[in-house]
Design brief:
With about 90 residues, the chain is an alpha+beta fold. It is built from one helix and three strands; from the N terminus they run ββαβ. The chain has one domain. It is elongated, with a radius of gyration of 14 Å.
């Protein structure tokens, strides 16, 4: 059985970070979640840029309902999906 793990990422080179956000049993639900999480992170980043709060790995103080561990730096935040086999019979 395959599960779909949505993960967030930010930064580049040695400061690149990735973190798991949520797992889904259906790929289309994971894809929908990625779209919504990307939109929300972009909204937060845009507001932070207008206030010049985004520096390097800054905490904007604003939370995302899609990603409680949201991190944003000057590269923004992106979400993607890892397809992972779920082992039920160990």
């Amino acid at each position: 059985m395959t599960i779909y793990v949505v993960y967030g990422s930010t930064g580049e080179y040695p400061d690149h970070e990735e973190w798991p956000v949520r797992a889904f049993m259906e790929k289309r639900k994971a894809e929908w979640f990625v779209l919504k999480a990307d939109e929300r992170a972009a909204e937060i980043a845009e507001r932070s840029r207008r206030g010049r709060m985004i520096m390097y790995n800054s905490d904007t103080g604003e939370k995302s309902e899609y990603d409680p561990s949201l991190r944003i730096d000057y590269t923004g935040t992106n979400y993607a999906i890892w397809e992972v086999e779920l082992e039920l019979n160990l």
